[in-house]
Amino acid sequence: MDLNCVGVFMDRDGTVSKEIGYVNHASRYELLPRTSLAIKKLNQAGIKALLATNQAGVARGYFKEEMIGEVHAKLERLLAQEDAYLDEIYYCHHHPDVGEGKFNKNCNCRKPKPGMLLQGAEEFDLDLNKSYMVGDKISDVETARRVGAKGILVLTGYGRGNYENDRDSWEVKPDYVAEDLHDAVEWILSHLEKRDQ
């Protein structure tokens, strides 16, 4: 299989980084253990590593949009220290019910709507049927399902609590439940190898 057409979309808070609620200052932002190693493995395999994150704190007035850029600059610096990188960062700063002006919008990019994945597929010529979405909420899995991608739930962030308390009521089921992003990437690489046989 040509891995150039494969993308791994990752949620941010609770998946790539620690879940601390709304990140209203870059100093509060910290990667989870093994995140850099996981993303580096994607880089080395030639698989696109893409962030897809809802950031409605802007619409809610908790911080200005510039803060998202500052946090993502820190994220990229932290990854670079371990020779890892993201191919692109997508974020949705909209909310359908709160906010003013351009931020108050019923958009197609707020997960579980698939707009960020569709944008990534278009920009990088990805086959979403061969791609993956990793996140700590079942809505991330639902986002994957809407475009035919595989959805992986990580037990970091909100994942473990959601899995233990809510899974019987889920309308969609994860393709895999991973301890963390690194575990998810290991499963993805193994899954791709099996697909190729």
From TrEMBL:
Gene3D superfamilies in the cross-refs: HAD superfamily/HAD-like (3.40.50.1000)
UniProt record, GO biological process: carbohydrate metabolic process
Enzyme Commission number(s): 3.1.3.-
Cofactor(s) for this UniProt protein: Zn(2+); Mg(2+)
Presence of the UniProt keyword Cytoplasm in the record: yes
Domain of life: Bacteria
Site (Stabilizes the phosphoryl group): T53, K111
Enzyme class (EC, first level): hydrolase
Intracellular or extracellular location(s): Cytoplasm
InterPro entries: HAD-like_sf (IPR036412), HAD-SF_hydro_IIIA (IPR006549), HAD_sf (IPR023214), Heptose_bisP_phosphatase (IPR004446), Histidinol-phos (IPR006543)
Gene Ontology CC: cytoplasm
Marked site (Contributes to substrate recognition) residue numbers: R110
Key words of the record: Carbohydrate metabolism, Cytoplasm, Hydrolase, Magnesium, Metal-binding, Zinc
Keyword Hydrolase: yes
MF-aspect GO terms: metal ion binding; phosphatase activity
Name used for this protein in its record: D,D-heptose 1,7-bisphosphate phosphatase
The species this protein was found in: Halobacteroides halobius (strain ATCC 35273 / DSM 5150 / MD-1)
Phylogenetic placement of the source organism: Bacteria, Bacillati, Bacillota, Clostridia, Halanaerobiales
